[in-house]
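User: Good morning. I'm curious how S-adenosyl-L-homocysteine would be positioned relative to this chain. Could you predict the structure with it bound?
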Amino acid sequence: MRTLPVPARRQLEKVYAFTTVTPHVKRVADNGKTVKYLLRLADGRTIETVVMQYDATARSRARTTICVSSQVGCPIGCTFCATGRSGFDRNLSEAEIVDQFLTASRDLAEGQRALTNVVFMGMGEPLNNYAAVVRAIRRWAAPDTLNFSPRRVTISTIGLVPFIERLSTEGLPVNLAISLHAPDDELRSSMIPVNRKYPIAAIVGAARAHAERTGRRISYEYVLLRGVNDSVEQAKRLAVLVKHRLSHVNLIPMNPVEGSPLAPPSKQRAQAFQSVLQAAGISTTIRATRGLDIDAACGQLRARQVQTVLAPA
Ligand code: SAH
Ligand code: SF4
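Assistant: Good morning! Here's the predicted structure, ligand included:
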């Protein structure tokens, strides 16, 4: 604001902040197509945000997707997740969620690119911070801010049923990704403790209702863990569960987490799992891994950073 006198500008700088998140570490991988930020918040805590560029294919246009965090840490505590293993600090504010988008956008603008999609697949359980997440989506969508359509936003959830139901009544056409990861309650509860409260049938029921109501596709996320949930038998059971209109399964070979014995299956085993689902008529993809060399999976860069800060090499 160069039209203001210098003392007024200095005073404004002192009293107001332009952003609630400041890049602390930035790492680039996949020939510049994956960028991971460790962002520092005003209270010194850190969160992760990842930007991934995808080239156009025969079936889809080029995309630039930002993966945002909704909480510092996560209270759900899934066994295979770096964030879950690091505990929970606090919810992010609406501004801290909005600012992840703005920070990445400014960086991208230098290369003449803009964000086309948002996924809530960073740190935290978005439906556990429901009000701030919904407000942030509405803020991006407002015509006088970014005019960014909720149709290009995906909320990924571990399955907090009452909030999935509430989301369906918001009049927000967001996409829903359900982190299912197991075809039966016994196994799922051993990986995801909150499954005891909201079992698979209730989650899939709420997801189907959301699809019917909004017309948006449900993506079932399934992290493949070698010898745990990756057998042909389990694929058959999964196929029965998720066979409904507007359903899609996204298989994610596990990104190894330091200190965890869990590991991804071989490529052949993952493909055999996918074939079972496809034979049952379910649209299924295996997610390409991104940024392995920069700890791009949920919570991993922060875990590494905390380690180096505490015990410098
Ligand atoms: N809490 C939400 C959103 C954040 S996690 C949820 O769980 O859906 C985003 C995705 O990353 C989820 O599908 C989650 O299962 C997956 N994920 C977590 N740890 C992973 C790992 N080690 N390897 C691969 N995917 C992982
Ligand atoms: Fe939380 Fe999602 Fe990680 Fe589970 S997978 S601990 S819900 S961030």
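The longest strand covers residues 21-29. Confidence is low (pLDDT under 50) at residues 304-313.
Let me know if you'd like a different ligand tried.
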